Amino acid sequence: MTKxxxxxxxxxxxxxTKIETKAVVDGVFxxxxxxxxxxxRIELRGFGVFKHKSRKPRTARNxxxxxxxxxEERYVPVFKPSPEFLNKVxxxxxxxxxxxx
Length: 101
What we know:
The chain contains three helices and five strands; from the N terminus they run ααβββββα. It is α+β, with helices and mostly antiparallel strands. It has one domain (3-95): HU Protein, Chain A (Irregular), CATH 4.10.520. The strands form two sheets. A three-stranded antiparallel beta sheet has the order 1-2-5. It has a two-stranded antiparallel sheet with strand order 3-4. α1 crosses α2. The longest helix is centred in the first third of the chain and has 20 residues, at 18-37.
C-alpha cells in the first residue's frame, strides 16, 4: 500500500477531497518526523509508539570487498506496535491462508 492508496481510502471514508486528505496525511507524517528529529516520543494509543533509538559505534564489513568499515554512533527511528495492533494483525493473518510457497 502506498501513500496514494492511503489518501484514496481516507478520502472515500471521510468525504474529503483527495487534495484535502493528502494535506492532512502529509501533515501527520511531517509532525511525526519533526517530533522524532526533536528527540520526542509519539504515543498513539491502540496503534503504537514512534521514537528514536541510539545505535552504538561499531565496525562493519563491506560485503563486496570484505574491508572493515567503522560506523559512528547513529540514531534511528523505531516503531513499536501496541498489543491491540499486534493481536489484530495476528488474528487477521491466522484466518487467511498465507502459504507463500
